[in-house]
Each structure stands twice: as C-alpha cells, then as structure tokens.
Amino acid sequence: MKRLTLDGLNKAYGDTDAVRDVSLDVAPGEVVCLLGPSGCGKSTTLRIASGVERQTRGRVLIDGEVVSDDAHHAPPEKRSIGLMFQDFALFPHLSVIDNVAFGLTNVPRRDRKRIALEYLERVEMAGHASKYPHELSGGEQQRVALARALAPKPRVMLMDEPFSGLDNRLRDEVRDAALSVLKEEGAGVLLVTHDPEEALRMADRIALMRGGNIEQIGAPYHIYNNPKDRAAAAFFSDLNVIHGSVRSRQTDTPFGLFLTPGLVDDADVEIIVRPQHLSIALDDGARPESSARTGVAAPGSVIRARFMGSESLIEVSMDHDNSVLRATVPGVFTPEAGKRVWLSLKRESCFLFPCAAQSKVRSPFVRDGESVF
C-alpha cells in the first residue's frame, strides 16, 4: 500500500497551468523529493497533497483512500498528514512540550505530555521541554517542529523547504537527525526543495520538476548519472559543454571521437562533462597517452586557478576554439596563469545531447542552463 498517491494532478490559475499531469506515489518510510527551481510547481503540488489547495483535475489518495477528487475534498485535518515548513511555526506563548502536545487532540489529555516528551527525546530536545521558542536556536526550533509534526503519528509527512533557514553546518546536522526519525516512523515523506544537495542527501527518489511537469523521476544515483537532458544535468552541478557536429554517425572533438549512431550527419551535438570529470596535467613537452577511458588529451592555457578548500578550480582556455573549460581536482593545485596544460575527460561520465537552438551560441560553462563565465 502506498502512503501517498498523486494521480494526474493539474492546477490552473486563470489561463496559467501551475501543475500539469503530476503523478507520483510515496511508500511507507520512503522520502520522495520534489526538486526544481522557483516557480516550477513543486510547492503547489505539496499544497494540493496537504489539502490547502484543491487541484483543477486529478486525485489525491492516502493509504489507497481517495481524499480529493472531482467529487469531494477532505480538509488537511482529515488527512492524517504532518506539515513542516521553513518558518518552524511554533507558538511563542507555549513551552516546548506544550507546542508538541498541542496537536494531540485525539489523545486523552492525561497522556499528551507523556507522548510529547517521548518525541522530544527522539529529537534530543527533552532537556529543553520547559523552555519557550525564543530561548532556542534555529536548529533546536526545527527539531521541536519535527517532534510536533510526528507526535500525532501522521501517515504522510509533507515538508516544504524545512531546513533552508539554517546555516550550512546546522542544516546537515538537523537534516540527518530528521531523516533518521522519519525513517523510523514509517511515514511517507514528500519533501520540497530547490537545493540539489539536500535532495541527494535525503531522498530515496527524486522527482525533477520543470514548468509544472515532472520531467524525470528516479533514485538519486540514476537522476544524477543519467539526466534526460542538459538542463537536468545542469541542475545538479556546474557543467562544461563541448560542441561538435555529426559525421558518419560520429562526432569528432579535440578529445577524440564520440559515437552518435542515433543522429544524422551535420546534426549539432553537445558533449557535457562535469568539472570533476576533467583531468588536468602540466605540459612537459609531450602529449599524454590516449586511452579508451580518457580519449585524447587536448591542449590549453591556464587562465586562473583557485584553491576552494577541499579542491582546486582551474579555468583553461582551450587551443582549438578559445572556449573556457573548468576542472576541479582534489587538494591544492594552483598553476600560474599562462601555464600550458593538457585536459582529458572521463568518457564514461560524459553526456551527449542534441544541440538545442538556444545552445548554438557557445557558452562552454553553464549553471542551471545559463552561462556564468
């Protein structure tokens, strides 16, 4: 039995479709992440699942029971759902334990504080039970919000950017704690985020949204390593783009030949490679040996190199067309500007896509589909 099922959801505001034919399901104990840029429809989808908004068309089911369709629409309090948002939404006039106990309306009054304390213990906040929200840090408030959402034992937990208000170090700590408790509870979790790192860290499956549609859905490893197009690849990391043209079902590049059997001659293609999948070697006067794994090394000159903490980022102007490619390497590697180098790429980590019309202008380094160089 699926905890949550969204079946063919559509939502229109006037002539604008915010959500188009969205279908997915969430199993018990599974975390499914709606990932996408602002305005793609992910928060609208979550609000429809919660009952805060009603779809124009489609169905919402919880544990196989229809809670919203064309005939009827159950309000949020009738859906056995938990809600977590970015702003914590704790009652400032109630103590921590009273905040958690507040939603236990179906539990005898004498048992509410006992259950609330049990959930505070699970999120390591029992020692703060008598405090008030203003006495807590942001991370502590979010742990209390998690306990409050879980205490009524919802079948489905809906989370809208719940960790985005925390600093990076605290965010990782609270995310990991929340994920552990959510898995133990067995609720189906639908999480909305625009942060690909958060999606990769928390999700069992990622639904990548764009323009109101789910463009691709799958396990994080699959989505990251098998993107359906350049935009999907760019959402997870910076990209280098190498342009080429098909000849005899192959595309010739400075890095060697790539097989392109599905494309006709003269078709323009883009070969996509992430910076961490480019290898760089100083030019000692001899071209590095080619191999089936790395292909042919291509020459260029260093524009700049920067140490980024755990890795170094090197920008290289390529000899063949003066395009700029960026490579990241572990540790400290900061050759001077003008230094001659060879770049090689991991061929198994490259993606090859037909060239979209807007990609005809060379923009060899892209983030979220836009040049940043």
Topology:
Blueprint: E1 4-13, E2 16-26, E3 31-35, H1 42-50, E4 57-62, E5 65-68, E6 81-85, H2 96-101, H3 109-122, H4 138-150, E7 156-160, H5 168-185, E8 188-193, H6 196-202, E9 205-210, E10 213-218, H7 220-225, H8 230-236, E11 239-247, E12 250-253, E13 256-259, E14 268-273, E15 278-282, E16 298-307, E17 311-318, E18 324-330, E19 340-345, E20 351-354, E21 365-367, E22 370-371
Parallel strand pairs: 3-8, 3-9, 6-7, 7-8
Antiparallel strand pairs: 1-2, 1-4, 4-5, 9-10, 11-12, 11-14, 11-21, 12-13, 14-20, 15-19, 16-17, 16-19, 17-18, 21-22
Helix pairs in contact: 3-4, 4-5
Give a verbal description of the structure.
- By secondary structure, this protein is of the alpha+beta class.
- The protein has two domains: 4-230, 3-Layer(aba) Sandwich (Rossmann fold), CATH 3.40.50; 238-371, Beta Barrel (OB fold (Dihydrolipoamide Acetyltransferase, E2P)).
- Helix content is 21%, strand content 35%.
- The chain has eight helices and 22 strands.
- It has helices at 42-50, 96-101, 109-122, 138-150, 168-185, 196-202, 220-225, 230-236; strands at residues 4-13, 16-26, 31-35, 57-62, 65-68, 81-85, 156-160, 188-193, 205-210, 213-218, 239-247, 250-253, 256-259, 268-273, 278-282, 298-307, 311-318, 324-330, 340-345, 351-354, 365-367, 370-371.
- Strands 11, 12, 13, 14, 20, 21 and 22 form a seven-stranded antiparallel sheet that branches. The protein has a six-stranded mixed sheet with strand order 6-7-8-3-9-10, sandwiched between helices.
- A hairpin with a 3-residue loop joins strand 16 (298-307) and strand 17 (311-318).
- Helix 4 packs parallel to helix 5.
- It is elongated and about 80 Å long.
- Mean pLDDT is 90; it is low at 357-373.
